[in-house]
Structure prediction request, 272 residues.
Amino acid sequence: MGRLLKELMKDILTKEELDKLYSGLDIIGDIAIFKVPDELSKYKSVIGERIISRLKNVKSVWCQVGPVSGEYRIRELEHVAGDNRSVTIYKEHGCIFKVDITRVYFSPRLSAERLRIAKLVEEGETVFNMFAGVGTYSIIVAKKKRNVKVYSSEINPDAYSLMIENIRLNKVEGKVIPLFGDSSKHAEDLKGTVDRVIMPLPEKAKEFLPKALLTLKKGGWIHYYTHIPYGKGEDPIEKAKAEVLGLKVVFGRVVREVGPRLAQVVLDLRAD
Prediction:
């Protein structure tokens, strides 16, 4: 959402305060999420009310008050305006997803990347999504392709329950196969049967890469996501390649910046 937050607050904050305000604003269904630096935390409710008054499709506003953390990588959020409700319906690429922002991690900023992966999947493929969340990547693939099977693994029980519901909402039963628990175990069960692995959890990708490779057929693909800190003059894509030495990197790109000098990178890997 670019500089939308700064635009909304330009007649309330001073120029110095606006310079400190983060510009990003996530809108998930009818819920908005923003972050502010500590020195502007006194404005949380004011910002929330301004979002509600100016963005008519937004009914609930939350402020991210802590980092994404814990085993399930969940944002620390505080309700600041509108309906005190954390569940919403989010629409993307012709699919609908029920999301609870306080119980699962979800980012609308990966919309273009999810569609890119869905377009790469070929008819007849077996896909393994190692970190499925509420099923977003898996369901978009299943809706865009007629003849695919997507094994969709998730360890967070709340995300798994929502994935089950989203599979039903999108009518992809039988195409998306939900798997509850540790994807390492599921990888063992799928050994040598998979054409393509999706690894959309940057914090765990390097650790789980050997398990992803275990599942692949010869010539299979891995979509490997990682967070790369980089300095001035450094290429985060080249730094990411150092994590996958010995594997063929066919494509790489910076998906988004997730912090100062911290990039989320995807590498498309081919197992020969």
Summary: The mean pLDDT is 95. Residues 157-169 form the longest helix (13 residues). The two ends are 40 Å apart (CA to CA). Residues 70 and 76 are 10 Å apart (CA to CA).
